[in-house]
Amino acid sequence: MKVEIVYGDGRIGVFDTANLVAGQPFGRSCITAELVMRFDMADSEGICLDIHHHDIAEEADDADVPFADRCRGYRVCLAEAGELDGIESIVVDDRVVAWRQAGRFVDGVRFERAQRLWYSDSPNAGDNYKACSIYDYLEAARPDLRSDPEAICALFGYPVEAFVEARQAENAQPEEDEEV
């Protein structure tokens, strides 16, 4: 796993875990590493990566396929809580998993999923357009959520503030037949 944290001041922090799947960091019985990105503790601990490992059991039982033992590993802080305001985006294995819009992080993974489920327009459209289109679709398709913009936005990974900025940006776009 390769994690890139892009800061607004031009820095890019790059963390590469490719060498962690070798047995050296965990011992000879390690057969795989488990990497868990932790955004859920960002406000208190920062953005972290939990690194666990699965070891071959010392004594295999009589099962057809014995289970490897899951061993708790270590937590690596990729960006401290005090650095969060300076982060522009987070990229994991060339996939943007979060970006800052209107001062808040958009959940890129949830947004990708929402596009697969609820977006059928041009794949070349910008993210602001896609967010507005998904919002409009969900508002029409889910009458139970019409009066709850926060609930609608949560379904596609946008904080309300980020969505409001996206809508404003889209509304500022010239009409197709309008001269620029």
Q: State mean pLDDT (0 to 100 scale).
A: 90
Instruction: Note the main sheet.
Output: 5 strands, antiparallel
Question: Strand tally, please?
Answer: 8
Uncertain spans: none
Helix content: 25-40%
Structural class: alpha+beta
In DSSP terms (H or I, runs of 4 or more residues), the helix count works out at 5
Proportion of beta-strand residues: 25-35%
Strand order of the largest sheet: 2-1-6-7-8
Query: H/E series, N to C?
Result: EEEHEEEEEHHHH
Shape: elongated
Care to describe what's here?
It is a single chain. With 180 residues, the chain is α+β, with helices and mostly antiparallel strands. It contains 5 helices and 8 strands, in the order βββαβββββαααα. It has a 5-stranded antiparallel beta sheet. The chain has a 3-stranded antiparallel beta sheet with strand order 3-4-5. It is elongated, with a radius of gyration of 21 Å.
Task: Describe the structure concisely.
This protein has 180 residues and is of the alpha+beta class. The protein contains five helices and eight strands; from the N terminus they run βββαβββββαααα.
Brief descriptors of the model:
single chain, about 180 residues, alpha+beta, five-stranded antiparallel beta sheet, three-stranded antiparallel beta sheet, 5 helices
Question: How would you summarize the topology of this molecule?
Answer:
Blueprint: E1 2-7, E2 12-16, E3 30-38, H1 42-45, E4 47-55, E5 69-79, E6 87-92, E7 95-101, E8 104-107, H2 108-118, H3 127-141, H4 149-155, H5 160-171
